[in-house]
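Weekly structure sync, notes
Attendees: PL (lead), two postdocs, one rotation student
Agenda item 3: pending single-chain targets
PL asked that the sequence for the first pending target be pasted directly into the notes so everyone works from the same version. It is reproduced below exactly as submitted, 362 residues in total.
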Amino acid sequence: MMDVYSGGNQQGYQQPQNQPPYYQTVQVQPNRRPLSFWIAIVLGIFLFLSFIFNVLLLSAVVSTATVRNTHNMQEDFIAGDAGSQNKIVVIDISGVIMNEEAGGLLFSSTDMVTKVSTELSYAEEDNSVKAVILRVNSPGGAITACDTIYDQIKRFRKKRPDVKVIAFYETVSASGGYYVTAGADKIIASPTCITGSIGVIMSFYNLEELYQKIGLKDVVIKSGEFKDIGSPSRPMTDKENELFREMLNEMYQRFLTVVDEGRKIMDMAKVKELADGRVFTGEQAKLNGLVDETGYFEDAVETAEKTAGISGAKVVKYGKIPSFIDVLFGASGRQEQFDMATELHKLFLAKTPVMMYLYRIE
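Predicted structure, written out during the meeting:
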């Protein structure tokens, strides 16, 4: 019997010539993860990140709401002696004066009425405050908002008669911007500012011809003759015009009274002479008695110190304490101001006519 060993070339076994050796190739399949595994990993990461984001978002909203409700504020040093026990608080009144909050869920801007009221209340409670400077850069705004701020300033002066209120007009302080500060102890205007514009304006559009061109018809069912007064889809009647003029005249007389009461150096006859809607430069306003002095912010500080009988005061302004959302998204913790163009657009394109103490240029 022949002993054949398959694993090698033993004696007695000859490999056939011209024939390659026999090799068996074994393919090893890689240990691949199923597609469902990777889908599960991706979904897991997404859900985890979503959970973290929602927790942060909820914390941010709660933090922001807390700041709004409690009006947490901080003092920001501006100028003067940081170690002084006497303070001068600067309150900015900027942009179109409205009493509507602007912004969205995460970022919003407190309306001007609430802002001024809050800052005055802080100044009222601080016995080290000896003067308040109302720094104005505003063309005015809605009548009710302007009148409310004017009333808040009057109430502050009654509660803190020891605190002097100084108005400083920087770039523009016209119409409602002048109205809110007419009762200040002193008014300083920069020489090149625009002020005045004492009067009332109401603006809305007559779109009747446009409606006709595009084939749009405004169908109105009303309970009374004047229910759709001011409608942009038809001309105004004589009676409606008369009603509006009566309303504007009432608000106009209110403006005259505020200026007459606030500007002791002027009588009503002089006020009426200047109250035809015209604007003045700072120098012209001084010559006509609408402001007391011309100068710059440093001059307003000096006037505040002199009027309050102090020197070397610490000049500060209030700012909102940054909330979690501010820190998270890098937003400023300071009070955001209104965008003037946006607010004017809202006012003039509104279908409902609005009476305004506003210096308007178109």
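Discussion points:
- The domain at 49-61+72-358 is CATH 3.90.226.10 (2-enoyl-CoA Hydratase; Chain A, domain 1).
- The longest strand covers residues 164-174.
Action: rotation student to compare against the earlier draft before next sync.
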